UniProtKB/TrEMBL annotation:
<dbReference type="GO" id="GO:0046872">
    <property type="term" value="F:metal ion binding"/>
</dbReference>
<dbReference type="Pfam" id="PF10509">
    <property type="entry name" value="GalKase_gal_bdg"/>
</dbReference>
<dbReference type="GO" id="GO:0005524">
    <property type="term" value="F:ATP binding"/>
</dbReference>
<dbReference type="GO" id="GO:0006012">
    <property type="term" value="P:galactose metabolic process"/>
</dbReference>
<dbReference type="InterPro" id="IPR014721">
    <property type="entry name" value="Ribsml_uS5_D2-typ_fold_subgr"/>
</dbReference>
<keyword id="KW-0547">Nucleotide-binding</keyword>
<dbReference type="InterPro" id="IPR006206">
    <property type="entry name" value="Mevalonate/galactokinase"/>
</dbReference>
<feature type="domain" description="GHMP kinase C-terminal">
    <location>
        <begin position="304"/>
        <end position="383"/>
    </location>
</feature>
<dbReference type="Pfam" id="PF00288">
    <property type="entry name" value="GHMP_kinases_N"/>
</dbReference>
<comment type="similarity">
    <text>Belongs to the GHMP kinase family. GalK subfamily.</text>
</comment>
<dbReference type="Pfam" id="PF08544">
    <property type="entry name" value="GHMP_kinases_C"/>
</dbReference>
<keyword id="KW-0479">Metal-binding</keyword>
<dbReference type="InterPro" id="IPR006204">
    <property type="entry name" value="GHMP_kinase_N_dom"/>
</dbReference>
<keyword id="KW-0299">Galactose metabolism</keyword>
<keyword id="KW-0460">Magnesium</keyword>
<dbReference type="GO" id="GO:0005829">
    <property type="term" value="C:cytosol"/>
</dbReference>
<keyword id="KW-0067">ATP-binding</keyword>
Length: 405
């Protein structure tokens, strides 16, 4: 996997150089430092995080980079290389109110981080401000966690430059703060997976995370040794996590099912057959519960295979997981199904949609010598149906958020 790594390093270096120089154009000085937080691809455990369950994401070579200088004037000024038309967005962290969110669009994630830091008891005297410029090589709306990457890059920069030492050393605590920014300030009712992946993943590994205890283990993937690749197929169908959409509806259905079953969360369902019987009159809730319970089992099964040094066997689990998301959780879409079915038919070991669903990306596990064949077959299948051409990316398991300079 030499080539993708090289690509990443080049892209990272270019982004850092451009960021430092445009930060200088904006503010007349060099930034104090540059931080980068990656996106993620989840390999197993979809919609299980907010059910207190298990997940298995890995960090990607692409992410959000933030040039950052702390100030004590109580003002944040932030600009984005992707949104030059928005210019510099200004807000006062001390005046932010989650009941009346005043910072719109992409900058809401940045404001949310400052709001959540304050809520957690940090930066309480109201003087904290910052000059920030962000850049990204992660597509937005591809279900690769660009929101969490933005939150985590800014949060890590803030924690390290405001000398919040205990926080900066506590990645699970940072993940909670970044999630709070997204849930309470931005208003997207997501779980803890994406922020945990961005902050806690290690190169070459996936993060086996228990979303209830927040205990996590980095599990080696061993893809290179097994001659395997993970190919991300971005369908270019934009997915959204905002309140009121399908994601929030699934979350509400899971909560209702847990209540009917008398458990704190669907994680606690021990006997699936008995649970399905209890929910007998509600076929929709039965399907939702079936997905969550079997998906949590698949996370454990996947980790078992990785620990046994059999990453190739993950393929069957990928495909079973996709079918569960398609038929029982009903979060797939025709483009994701086409990508998965075509990849499997062209020789992938398995494939599944990843992330929140209703669009975004699929991930396929493929023997190295079949990657081109799979890529061509999927591109042809999309073209034959007159769909927007999908984008392909080699997903190399990468390092979590860190300071670059
Ligand atoms: C999105 C959410 F942000 C995560 O918390 C998780 O629920 C995921 O969808 C589905 O597994 O990425």
């Amino acid at each position: 996997a030499g080539a993708p790594e090289l690509e990443w390093n080049v892209s990272e270096g270019v982004i850092t150089g451009q960021l430092v120089s445009s930060f200088g154009d904006d503010h007349g000085v060099a930034p104090d430092g540059v931080w980068r937080a990656p996106g993620r691809v989840n390999l197993m455990g979809e919609h299980t995080d907010y059910n207190d369950g298990l997940v298995l994401p890995m960090a990607l070579p692409w992410g959000v980079t933030a040039a950052f200088t702390p100030t004590d004037d109580g003002v944040v000024e932030v600009s984005s290389a992707q949104r030059p038309e928005d210019g510099t967005v200004r807000f006062r962290p001390a005046s932010l109110d989650a009941d009346r969110p005043s910072v719109p669009g992409w900058a809401a994630y940045v404001a949310g981080v400052f709001w959540a830091l304050r809520e957690a008891g940090h930066l309480a005297d109201g003087t904290a401000g910052a000059r920030i410029r962000v850049d990204s090589d992660l597509p937005v709306g591809a279900a690769l966690s660009s929101s969490a990457a933005l939150e985590c890059a800014v949060l890590l920069a803030a924690a390290e430059t405001f000398e919040l030492g205990a926080l900066a050393a506590d990645r699970p605590a940072m993940a909670r703060i970044a999630r709070r920014a997204e849930n309470a300030y931005v208003g997207a009712p997501t779980g803890i997976m994406d922020q945990s992946a961005s902050l806690r993943c290690k190169e070459g590994h996936a993060l086996y995370l228990d979303c209830r205890s927040e205990g996590g283990r980095n599990v080696a993937l061993g893809l290179d040794d097994a001659g395997l690749r993970l190919l991300i197929i971005d369908t270019r169908v934009q997915h959204r996590l905002a309140a009121g959409g399908g994601y929030a509806q699934r979350r509400a259905e899971c909560e209702k099912a847990a209540e009917l079953l008398g458990v704190d969360a669907l994680r606690d369902v021990e006997d699936l057959a008995a649970a399905l019987e209890t929910l007998g009159g509600d076929p929709v809730l039965r399907r939702r519960v079936k997905h969550i319970v079997t998906e949590i089992h698949r996370v454990n099964a996947a980790v078992g295979l990785l620990r046994a040094g059999q990453p190739g066997e993950l393929g069957a689990l990928f495909t079973a997981s996709h079918l569960s998301m398609k038929d029982d959780f009903e979060i797939s879409c025709p483009e994701l199904d086409l990508a998965v079915e075509t990849a499997c038919r062209a020789g992938a070991r398995g494939a599944r949609m990843t992330g929140g669903g209703f669009g975004g990306s699929a991930v396929a596990l493929i023997a190295e010598d079949r990657v081109d064949r799979v890529r061509d077959a999927v591109a042809d299948a999309f073209a034959a149906k007159g769909l927007t051409a999908p984008e392909f990316r080699d997903a190399v398991p990468s390092q979590g958020a860190e300071r670059l300079r």
